[in-house]
Amino acid sequence: MKFIGVTGGIGAGKSEILKYIGKHYTCEIYFADEVAFEVRKKGTECYNKLVLLLGEDVAGDRQKMAKAVFADKDLLEKVNAIIHPAVKDYLLDALNRAKEKGCELFFVEAALLIEAGYKDILDELWYVYADREVRILRLMNSRGYSREKAEGIMANQLSDEVFRRECDFIIDNSSSLDKACECIRRRLEGYRWQE
Prior knowledge:
By secondary structure, the chain is an alpha/beta fold. The chain has two domains: 1-26 and 106-187, 3-Layer(aba) Sandwich (Rossmann fold); 35-103, no CATH class. Helix content is 56%, strand content 13%. It has helices at 14-24, 32-39, 45-54, 56-59, 62-70, 73-101, 132-142, 147-155, 160-166, 177-187, and strands spanning 2-7, 27-31, 105-109, 124-129, 169-172. Strands 2-3-1-4-5 form a five-stranded parallel beta sheet, sandwiched between helices. Helix 1 (14-24) packs across helix 10 (177-187) and helix 3 (45-54) packs antiparallel against helix 6 (73-101). The longest helix has 29 residues, at 73-101.
């Protein structure tokens, strides 16, 4: 089984790429944001640690927590130090279950795979790339973001140079999804294809 991380900046099209992979290959796909939501549910060890750090009022409310941590860089680092290891443990458990079932491909998607140290546990790290202007327009059209909001988020993410240096495989998703998917088909040649 191959454990593949899929990363890239906001608006690059990671979710669309993974939707295509999920439709055509025998695989399991996890989105780190969804896993982070699971591991910090009330009653989990992660939640209890967040309550000790932030208080129950903030730890139990996603919007309040986001507002608190993005206003305080030190607090963000402390929250990440609680959530990231819990997400990684969850994914490694899921990976082991997938291996036992004979799964061929196991994917995890997150913008922060490089920063969170996933390179050490992945077989491959893929970078979904799209031109800056393409990403801005996608965010404005699909999420209703203003240009300023899109640019602000992008400014806080890794540069194209860092993604390219750290990743094993680059998928250019600047133009058509079909072109990007052709690139994936070549990369995954030999793995079971399903219509």
